[in-house]
């Protein structure tokens, strides 16, 4: 059943469609690993997943979740400790902090040909709330992701305008993606309009 009251879960309907053909999948804000686990459980055999986060505790939490809850020997996943803007801007994750099933692996290939890229902005639950994603770095990460996206690729972005910092980030994201050329991308948004306290907003970018 689709949960229309939960933006993070609602976006699964877009992921599920893309995962029917996606082979390279990137979670640019791995956090506690819930989104990454969902992607790992629903992707095609032979898929490669990347999880990126700048906080060590997030990488550790995501790694533990995948190791304990995802029995998929037919996929490859990498957890990368770094900023999403740096990694997506270059496509090169350099050295992963944690990697399944090995650790500290030096990658010989960059992240390319992304089929599905997701952002769940804000802060890592249970962490220091000052360690939030920021408008400038988020926009740089989205730009980098667009450069690495396959022609029919999909990007989903969840923003949290319920705080002043989150509202500024939401405005920056909306302003930037609204300028993307129509001939190259379909850009949409989904949000609950009858709720108080500025609920999260979902943005969708689909390559044409």
From TrEMBL:
One Pfam family hit: rRNA_methylase
Stretches of the chain forming a coiled coil according to its record: none
Give the signal peptide, or none: none
**PANTHER family per UniProt:** S-ADENOSYL-L-METHIONINE-DEPENDENT METHYLTRANSFERASES SUPERFAMILY PROTEIN, TRNA (MNM(5)S(2)U34)-METHYLTRANSFERASE, CHLOROPLASTIC
Q: What is this protein called?
A: rRNA methylase
